[in-house]
Amino acid sequence: MIDYVTRPEARPPLYNDVVMLSKSIEAYDLSITQHSMTMVQMAERLAERLGCLPTEIKTIGLAALLHDLGKVGVPTVILQKPGSLSPEEWVLMRRHPEIGAQIVQTVTGLSGVATIIQCHHENFDGSGYPHGLRGCQIPLGARILAVVDAFEAITSGRVYRPPRSPEAALQEIQRCAGTQFDPQIVEAFVALIHEEGFNANQGE
């Protein structure tokens, strides 16, 4: 992985814009940033395994980094609530993909990233949000992020539940293949984890 901090000449276009956006997430909630950084590594590896082009992998990686940006528009009392959300709170929480996409769209050249962010909570069977897209209506990058997001969330835990083992996370993801997740992406992800031993808590 290229070190863009010590090698500024290697920085891709829009690097500074992306850093600015990611820092706005960090200032709001550091746990969101940590979650996103772990997702970047897994999402890029999975995209590569699925045969994505380098430009597509970069777009998916940026989307993974910024996918929860829209949570800056959700009250912290909701984000950090230890129990179940009320119906009214869920309405606010479910707005974050569109809020994030709207923010990212303000940066020239990140429209593809914005589309993935907007769709990363769509479910393969059409039961997700915000638009109820199904199957291949959902961008490939968003289908990748959905699987990686679930794995990282399960293995790292949340304020309302303790972390579970990678194997337990894989079992849960496999159980939801065809409903919440794209079965082909689930198959590729399970193989990736088993072959490389990737752990959401330790990175590569």
TrEMBL record:
Coiled-coil segments: none
Domain annotation HD-GYP: ranges: 10-204
Any one Pfam family match given in the protein's UniProt record, by short name: HD_5
Signal peptide: none
Domain HD: 32-154
PANTHER family per record: CYCLIC DI-GMP PHOSPHODIESTERASE TM_0186, CYCLIC DI-GMP PHOSPHODIESTERASE TM_0186-RELATED
Protein's recorded name: Uncharacterized protein
